[in-house]
């Protein structure tokens, strides 16, 4: 039962005891005494992995890198700005947690991820082998 319904339910009892309290004061009283239940917010889901496109095997299941440049993880997130949304593509080294490539763009296009990957590839030593580039299999 919510605070507003509880106030309606208790209103007759309050009047019988000559207690006058408004809705906001009642909610504040409940809040100060830790009697309000916090609402659970719906978390936005930004990754849809159950799509029709080809899914590559998960090469990093139970894999733990022991040095830098063995595993890069990429993800795309959106940032709300005063002009609308901007999309940030990040490529992170899983061992050092260092951001090795990024791209910020007002549109969600595949070339944004490619530009972030190009930036990351420039940080690799020459003739480097054995790197795994992993994403969350999202449609973005």
From TrEMBL:
GO process annotations (BP): DNA integration
Signal peptide: none
InterPro entries: Integrase_cat-core (IPR001584), RNaseH-like_sf (IPR012337), RNaseH_sf (IPR036397), Transposase_IS3/IS150/IS904 (IPR050900)
Domain Integrase catalytic: 61-140
Sections of the chain in a coiled coil: none
GO terms for MF: nucleic acid binding
Protein name: Integrase catalytic domain-containing protein
Source organism of this protein record: termite gut metagenome
């Amino acid at each position: 039962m919510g605070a507003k319904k509880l106030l309606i339910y208790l209103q007759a009892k309050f009047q019988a005891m000559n207690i006058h309290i408004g809705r906001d004061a009642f909610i504040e009283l409940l809040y100060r005494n830790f009697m309000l239940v916090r609402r659970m917010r719906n978390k936005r889901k930004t990754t849809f992995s159950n799509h029709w496109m080809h899914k590559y095997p998960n090469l990093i299941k139970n894999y733990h890198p022991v040095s830098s440049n063995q595993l890069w993880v990429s993800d795309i997130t959106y940032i709300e700005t005063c002009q609308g949304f901007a999309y940030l593509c990040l490529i992170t080294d899983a061992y050092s947690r260092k951001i090795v490539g990024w791209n910020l763009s007002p549109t969600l296009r595949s070339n944004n991820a490619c530009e972030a990957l190009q930036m990351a590839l420039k940080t690799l030593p020459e003739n480097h082998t054995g790197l795994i580039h992993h994403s969350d299999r999202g449609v973005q």
